[in-house]
Design a protein that fits this description.
Layout: E1 7-11, H1 15-27, E2 31-35, H2 38-47, E3 53-57, H3 66-76, E4 81-86, E5 101-104, H4 109-121
Parallel strand pairs: 1-2, 1-3, 3-4, 4-5
Length: 135
């Protein structure tokens, strides 16, 4: 699968951050949907089983945060690439669900794009970082 066929769901409660990331991912050739909460994301995922990757903030309002969402998705859809981000937390790799990767805010969007491009050309969830934190 070419990277431009990768279908990404962006989950971020900060509207401007979400809009900016969605625009940049679309400009890079990805298919993108968005959600403002984990609850909304679950609905979008139910409606779009063809989603290949979940990019979610950890700190969000609602019934669950992004880390709980990532754990749920990693259990129900282990083939799905999961990318987590936070400006407040750093999650050690061994505490991430499944094959998830963590990117600290502020993140370099090009690193996100490169990681997502790798989904289409290599095994999903392949290790892409050398530090104890995937950043």
């Amino acid at each position: 699968m070419a990277y431009d066929a990768v279908f990404v769901l962006v989950v971020e409660d900060e509207v401007l951050i979400r809009m900016s990331l969605v625009d940049q991912l679309e400009d890079a050739g990805f298919r993108v949907l968005e959600a403002g909460t984990a609850d909304e994301a679950l609905g979008v995922m139910a409606d779009h089983p063809e989603i290949d990757a979940l990019f979610t903030d950890i700190d969000m309002p609602g019934s669950m945060d992004g880390l709980k969402l990532a754990r749920l998705v990693s259990q129900s859809r282990p083939e799905l690439a999961v990318l987590l981000t936070s400006g407040y937390l750093k999650i050690p790799r061994n505490e991430l669900p499944g094959k998830a990767h963590f990117f600290s805010k502020p993140y370099d969007v090009n690193r996100i794009i490169d990681h997502l491009r790798g989904i289409g050309t290599s095994e999903r969830g392949a290790d892409c970082a050398d530090s104890p934190f995937t950043r």
